[in-house]
Amino acid sequence: MPRPSRRIHTCVLLALLAQVLLCGQGAPVEGAWEGVLQAPGGGRLRLRVHVEKTAAGGWKAALDSPDQGAFGIAADTASFEGGVLRWTIEKLRASFEGRLNAEGTAIEGTFTQGVAMELALKRMPAAAAKAPGRPQMPKGPFPYRAEEVTFSSTDSRVTLAGTLTFPAGAGPHPAVILISGSGPQDRDETIMGHKPFLVLADWLTRRGVAVLRYDDRGTAKSTGAFAEATSVDFSNDAVGALDYLKGRKEIDGKRIGFLGHSEGGLVAPMVAVRRPEVAFVVLLAGTAVPGSAVMLAQGEAIGKAAGAPEAALAQNRRLQETLFEAVRTTPDPEELRKKVEEALSMMPEAQRAAQVKQITGPWMRFFITYDPAVILRRLKAPVLALFGELDLQVLPEQNAPVLEAALRAAGNEQVEIHRLAGLNHLFQPAKTGTPQEYATIEQTMDERALELIAGWLRRTAGLEQAP
After folding, report:
1. From CA 51, how far away is CA 33, in angstroms rounded?
2. What's the sign of the alpha-carbon dihedral 256, 262, 263, 265?
3. How far, in Å, CA of 102 to CA of 13, rounded?
4. From 2's CA, which of 186, 218, 340, 349 has a CA 20 to 30 Å away?
5. What is the pLDDT of residues 349-385, one digit of tens each?
6. Host domain of residue 332
7. Is residue 134 part of a domain?
């Protein structure tokens, strides 16, 4: 974007003078500003900037990315001189430079993160600039005990750190181990300002079920290398969690099961088939078809919800199919990298490098070729499976019928499958189901899902009689 002209015309002298007077004061640029970033690939991302004057007379700024659930990212440098706002955030390799208009209502400029993109910021009312509330966030005092724990994966190089919550009473208690979705997740499965596993652990522990949740390997306080791991490695970590709980006197070793969300719903059946003593399995938005099919359907569903034209959807599908075929048929890592780079040649360099690294990594190679139905056809433990009807990441119409057929083939007669109207991939009450909506919804998990899970677990674990 070209810099604003510095030529001064006498016919606009009064307007220019007004701008100089405004910019000479602190008030016009202080406050919250929001704009929509149009990414090179066609995506849209809201950015929000909070600008304040410091007691020493300087400036500070903080960035929110509401669609990604990120709030209050402090700028390393910030300045406002001659009507121009500048700030940088080193850990994001991001910067902004923009000019305040004469009315003090907008800042037109350029946001740079690998590539330069135009960004127009408009002033926001103070009330609208607040981060959304999270009313379900558990608050003490708690009627249960929480203990920080560590345990070993079956991979001796990995030590997992987590939190174990014990219900009131002597025990021994039934217990559930939570397995998170894809990406490096902490024990609370923190995403876009929400902490689904913290809310779930609190809800279940209050109702008599002990809960173990832990940081993924290589994340937060857990050791190991996340980037080198596949779902099989995560199943080894989950087995380590099972062995750990079986050694705790407060836990009934015959009433331990797993709850997996998204990719965790792929991992939990692996463990239950490997270890027949697993007492139950809860699958939240778990996949039942190969990862390549999941991602193709996901890309189309999210694109349609965002209003992408059919031509763009078709082009994206062809690109995905090209990439998946390269991963499936190219065992040599260097040859695969070249194929992926060629397929993504239209992308800016910084974005292309990140995509190449992800697509050629071990996790992607495993995920797109793995068929969960093979294991599901061997799963004998009682199963509760929930899907949100507005889930655009793991589509219920694609996965629920295959899951049901696979469990029927296993001869499993203790199966409940529910498709919950109006809920998204996180089991929030949603309007569109798009990932961009997650952060804007105050509720972390709909109580219909929480009650279904708790009631089924209590009945399956023998804490109450079936109706």
Report:
1. 8
2. positive
3. 12
4. 349
5. 767 888 899 999 999 999 999 999 999 999 999 999 9
6. 292-367
7. no
